[in-house]
Amino acid sequence: MSIRIVTDSGSDLLKETAEKYNIEIVPLKIQFGEDVFVDGIDIDNELFYKKMAESKKIPITALPSPHDFMNAFKKIGPENEIICITISSVTSGTNQSAHLAKEMLPEYKIEIIDSLHISMSTGMLALNASKMAQEGISMEEKSNLKVFWN
Predict the structure, then answer these.
(1) What are phi and psi of 133, to 5 degrees?
(2) Domain 3-27+65-148: top CATH class
(3) Which residues of the chain have pLDDT under 50?
(4) pLDDT by residue (tens digit) across 73-104?
(5) Per-domain residue ranges for the chain?
(6) Are 84 and 7 in contact (CB under 8 A)?
(7) Alpha carbon distances (Å) from 137 to 8, 131, 144
(8) Which of 22, 66, 139, 143 has the smallest number of Cβ neighbours within 10 A?
(9) What gap in Å lies between CA 128 and CA 139, rounded to an integer?
């Protein structure tokens, strides 16, 4: 059994970094007018900034659904322990979606952590947690991991 890290795309982790450290990213949705894009799938940074320059309105985001988190957790599987670090619950309902997904998977060992941050500071928490997990830190030693988000 190993520990796997899940975060949302609001953490701004680069896809290459997430792949390197085996971090699962659950994408937010970005809406420009009537056009909706799945972050990191339908839209990348280059297209985002191009659309920002062209748009008369600021884009809005939509949080991942509990189903989106549930799919990410299922991809990892019940044989692994999961630490899910989300962007701040103060600015997004993403953390609540992750909690709802956890409730739908009672056979999984999942810890949901509200980073209380947005953007790359959440990404750094996910990255550090992944590095520690790869070094063999157990879920029982999570007090050692909490140094990154307390």
Answers:
(1) -65, -40
(2) alpha beta
(3) 143, 147-150
(4) 999 999 999 999 999 999 999 999 999 999 99
(5) 3-27+65-148, 29-62
(6) yes
(7) 22, 9, 8
(8) 143
(9) 14
